Amino acid sequence: MITVTDLCKSFDGTQVLNNVSLTVAAGEVVGVIGPSGSGKSTLLRCLNHLETPDSGVIEVDGHQAYIDERGKTLSAARIADTRSGVGMVFQHFNLFPHLTVLQNVASGPRFVRRKDRAESEQRARALLAQVGLAEKADQHPEQLSGGQQQRVAIARALAMQPKVMLFDEPTSALDPELVGDVLAVMQQLAEDGMTMIVVTHEMGFVRKVAGRVIFMDEGRIVEQGSPAEIFEAPAQPRTRSFLSSVLTHTAQDGTA
């Protein structure tokens, strides 16, 4: 579904991604973990063309995406077609405050995919029901909790019928008691066969739901493997150090 080859990205002379290569199969759930500043979010933003790589090749569903092997930007039409199949959920919801919940979810299909209003709203209502928010359709984002807003953001991304979903720290801005509902929606998507790449610090979710875990540090993939391999027997000292710190902190917080 997604193939990344030798992806590089720098900001102001600082190398953020350094020859990153990975493949994600259709229906696979990949958890991406690592310290802040390791390049995790930048990787997702490159996959959705929110950042343009300096070099490297990205393929989505068997087609070259965004730039070719010479670093030349592809046509706007090809980029738009690829992006429409790559849904993304951000840390900070990014809902339109002046639109209702229903309008937020229906706007993509209506204005990007040129679906008629009735069809767009019908699908939006079905997706809101899927994420447990059918009764909130006529409210505005400010009337919702953070967890509810994030579930609306997931529904909005799903409305575009993406082939893959990217999650960039989707629970990090939420109060702890609101995290569970969002993770439950994500787990159901995984069980339904959605291809997902999830950048998160929710180690319990990664262990339970991901089929593969990638550990990144300093712009590189240091190690990857099954949750059992990464959490129980990591091969690299840097992975062991990171997990020891994170899991100890989680246990002290009582959130394990």
Structure in a nutshell:
With 256 residues, the chain is an alpha/beta fold. It contains 9 helices and 10 strands. It has helices at residues 40-47, 76-83, 101-111, 117-130, 146-158, 176-191, 203-209, 227-232, 237-253; strands spanning 2-11, 14-24, 29-33, 55-60, 63-65, 86-89, 164-168, 195-199, 212-217, 220-225.
SSE blueprint and pairings:
Blueprint: E1 2-11, E2 14-24, E3 29-33, H1 40-47, E4 55-60, E5 63-65, H2 76-83, E6 86-89, H3 101-111, H4 117-130, H5 146-158, E7 164-168, H6 176-191, E8 195-199, H7 203-209, E9 212-217, E10 220-225, H8 227-232, H9 237-253
Parallel strand pairs: 3-8, 3-9, 6-7, 7-8
Antiparallel strand pairs: 1-2, 1-4, 4-5, 9-10
Structure, described:
The protein has 256 residues and is α/β, with parallel strands linked by helices. Helices cover 39% and strands 24% of the residues. The protein contains nine helices and ten strands. It has helices spanning 40-47, 76-83, 101-111, 117-130, 146-158, 176-191, 203-209, 227-232, 237-253; strands at 2-11, 14-24, 29-33, 55-60, 63-65, 86-89, 164-168, 195-199, 212-217, 220-225. The strands form two sheets. It has a six-stranded mixed β-sheet, with helices on both faces. The chain has a four-stranded antiparallel β-sheet with strand order 2-1-4-5. Helix 6 links the parallel strand 7 (164-168) and strand 8. Helix 4 crosses helix 5 and helix 5 (146-158) packs parallel to helix 6. The longest helix is centred in the C-terminal third of the chain and has 17 residues, at 237-253. The two termini are 32 Å apart.
